[in-house]
Amino acid sequence: MILNINKHERDSLAVIDSAGDMLKYGELTEFVNELKELVRNRSLVFVLAGNDVGGIAWSVGLIGAGIIPLLLSPKIDKELLQKLEDIYQPGYICLSNGDLGGVGVERELCRWGYSLLETGKKNYPLYEQLSHLLPTSGSTGSPKLVRHSYENVEASALNISTFFELKSEDRPVLVLPLYYTMGLSVVFSHLYVGATVLATDLSMTQREFWTFLKERKATSFTGVPYSFEILRMMRFFKMDLPDLELLTQGGGKLSRELNLQFVEYAQQTGKRWIATYGQTEGTARMAYLPPEYALSKCGSIGKAVPNGELFLIDSEGQLVKESHKEGELCYRGRNVTLGYALCKEDLALGDERKGCLKTGDLAYRDDDGFYYIVGRTGRFLKLYGMRVGLDECEQIVRAAFPVECACVGTDAKMIVYITNAQLAGLVKGELVEKTGIVASAFEVRIISEIPRNRVGKVLYSQLNNQ
Question: How far is 401 from 420, CA to CA, in rounded Å?
Answer without folding.
Answer: 10
